[in-house]
């Protein structure tokens, strides 16, 4: 069974006559253990799709099921704290918290004890290859690539299985951007996460297991691994 199932999902902005459906009857499934890319022109609805998958809003019609439960039947705050996380283009780290404190923050929101949160945060920073010397540093004194690793480690805390990225390599140089890809592949293929990345980045697209494209509100499979070989 797919971890995430979209069933005839519609979503638009505006009201009545001015209303325009950005997502128009989208149906598809996303599985654990796979890395997905979602492409499409600027304004095609990638961020809108991710905001529904993150539970920031509900579809206006149709349903999104996470592990079989529709998002409109869930406590969405809890869903966002425990099941899903997003990595944004600007990384959105808390500037007044150190790297380690940023990674610990979602665990503390969920009342995980400080010692356990610290141990888990250290393990996550190793998983994303963040050097230990970075842990006491504030985001303002880190490179883009380092900030991104902190954002990814923070996204993985609470053992979240669904990781979304909204153009996460958009602010990185090509060296940091190319380090990001093997990390995402490792998280999908070895840690069994479901990873969905909205991107313009050709190298992210090429390394994804499946690529979906949004055109005129429709999401369709653009290519999968087998076709590429
Ligand atoms: N809060 C909003 N209010 C009105 N229109 C919006 C809002 N957010 C996005 N849109 C519109 O919805 C469309 C899709 O936007 P978006 O999902 O951000 O696309 P993408 O991420 O692919 O660039 C665009 O036409 C955008 O202008
Ligand atoms: Mg966007």
- Spatial arrangement of strands, main beta sheet: 6-7-8-3-9-10
Q: Which architecture name of the largest domain does CATH use?
A: 3-Layer(aba) Sandwich
Give the CATH level 1 class of the largest domain.
Answer: Alpha Beta
H and E order: EEEHEEHEHHHEHEHEEH
Count of individual helical segments = 8
- Strand coverage percent: 25-35%
Number of strands: 10
CATH topology of the largest domain: Rossmann fold
What Rg, in angstroms, do the CA atoms define? 18 Å
Q: For the residues shown, what is the average pLDDT?
A: 93
Structure, described:
The chain is α/β, with parallel strands linked by helices. The chain has two domains: 152 residues, 3-Layer(aba) Sandwich (Rossmann fold), CATH 3.40.50.300; 67 residues, no CATH class. The strands form two sheets. Strands 6-7-8-3-9-10 form a six-stranded mixed sheet, sandwiched between helices. Adenosine-5'-diphosphate (ADP) binds next to helix 1.
């Amino acid at each position: 069974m797919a971890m995430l199932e979209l069933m005839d999902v519609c979503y638009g902005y505006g009201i009545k006559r001015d209303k325009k459906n950005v997502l128009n009857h989208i149906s598809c499934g996303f599985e654990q253990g796979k890395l997905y890319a979602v492409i499409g022109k600027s304004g095609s609805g990638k961020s809108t799709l991710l905001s529904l998958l993150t539970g920031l809003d509900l579809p206006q019609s149709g349903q999104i099921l996470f592990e079989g439960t529709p998002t409109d039947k869930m406590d969405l705050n809890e869903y966002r704290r425990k099941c899903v996380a997003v990595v944004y283009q600007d990384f959105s780290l808390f500037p007044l918290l150190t790297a380690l404190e940023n990674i610990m923050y979602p665990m503390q929101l969920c009342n995980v004890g400080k010692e356990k949160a610290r141990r888990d945060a250290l393990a996550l920073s190793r998983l994303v290859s963040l050097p230990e010397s970075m842990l006491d540093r504030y985001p303002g004194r880190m490179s883009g690539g380092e900030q991104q690793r902190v954002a990814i480690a923070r996204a993985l805390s609470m053992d979240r299985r669904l990781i979304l990225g909204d153009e996460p390599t958009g602010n990185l140089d090509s060296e940091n951007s190319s380090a990001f890809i093997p990390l995402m592949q490792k998280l999908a293929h070895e840690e069994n996460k479901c990873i969905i990345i909205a991107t313009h980045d050709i190298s992210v697209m090429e390394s994804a297991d499946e690529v979906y494209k949004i055109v005129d509100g429709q999401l369709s499979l653009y290519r999968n691994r087998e076709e590429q070989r």
